[in-house]
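Technical annex B. To support the medicinal chemistry partners, we prepared a structural model of the target in complex with coenzyme A, based solely on the information shown next.
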Amino acid sequence: MNLQEIYESKVVTAEQAVRKIKSGNRVVTGHACGEPTDVLAAMVANCEAYENVEIVHMVPMGKAEYLKKGMETHFTHNAVFVGGCSREAVAEGRADFTPCYFSKVPELFQKGYLPVDVAIIQLSPPDKNGNCSFGVSNDYTKPAAKCAKIVIAEVNDKMPKTMGDSFINVSEIDYIVEASHAIIELQPPKIGEIERAIGGHCASLVEDGSTLQLGIGAIPDAVLLFLKNKKDLGIHSEMISDGVVELVEAGVITGKSKVLHNGKIVVTFLMGTKRLYDFVDNNPMVEMYSVDYVNDPVVVAQNNKMVCINSAIQVDFMGQVNAESIGLTQFSGVGGQVDFVRGANMSKDGISIMAMSSTAAKGKISKIVPILDEGAAVTTGRNDVNYVVTEYGIAQLKGKSLRQRARALINIAHPYFRNELILEFEKRFNCEF
Ligand code: COA
């Protein structure tokens, strides 16, 4: 059979494809903006045929109907990162959360901790050699597909073709479901005064020629706003969104100073609008690799002047960062935070920044606290942390004693909470602030 015949022999409807899933199977699905929405919808419609099908993924951006109340007998969910659609189910005990560095998620599948029965993925149409691109989401999706017993691919003609090591051959796919729908989009967040102040402080720490990792949300986007006068920045990041396109077009992001993948933007997944997806399509400047490569701290460290910018829910007086839970309630996950903090720490002249607003819950709660909330996870440990930034300034913690750290952090807390934090400081350290 030639490639076209091989391709056609595998084409089925979504309804036919999901009949290959059996009760008790573990199904790993593509996630974030790469979620294979048509096949997932067919799987949910076929729910009466299943008992205890375990769904594993990270960021849920689609409807996640398998998580709705009443679906528990058909589907169990094991979240490696909790998001808007899975938070309630995890909190109510209808779903589970498994902690894992993002860089190590592929290992869960490859080394038999979570063997994959079925991988449901979304791809671009094949090129003349039969290679389909993982498009906006390579991350753990490609490694899961590579070790799954059955691979179901939603082949979407709207999926951009991304370069790098971002392909799978038609011969490695068992069932193909053809689709033609827009890729899920994430609209740019609103950037307010607080985010702008934080963005300005972060940008002041970024030198020309730095390589950046930026998380998701308003703060990373605000940082980008203040980088317009920098020169020859590079990107080696878990993800990027639309803000990066603007800086490439403005000639600020060139990647010319990068040691590793010189001139290239290296990422593992993308979340943005069609503008971003059009930019990456067939663009050799953007290289996508699996997350066990992109987020590997040893790989990250090969970039000089690596600057990673992530966020936090709470930072305690010692500099311990909780970025994933509100007390005992799992809010998100470690994602790539520690991967990049450690990579930046090992990089020549690298720095890591935790950037957050000084308060939460409309100003009612200080994010700088004497002690993390009971049950809160320590995401980044005190020995790894360096810069903490709020709208009130920059606290540099590396090389500082516990007492000096607490002082530096209180100085960037919201003024409304500083007096009570100072009282705690004086009790703990037995001295005046
Ligand atoms: N106490 C109680 N509630 C808190 C809180 C605190 N200390 N800090 C935040 N919250 C609440 C906020 O009020 C908000 O609630 P709302 O949605 O009802 O308004 C919610 O938690 C989200 O807070 P926000 O500050 O807007 O979060 P964010 O969207 O900027 O995300 C993290 C911050 C830390 C959750 C996020 O960056 C994350 O998950 N990080 C870990 C993963 C990671 O770093 N990946 C790396 C690169 S992608």
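Notes passed to the chemistry partners:
The longest helix spans residues 415-429.
Residues 130 and 170 are 5 Å apart (CA to CA).
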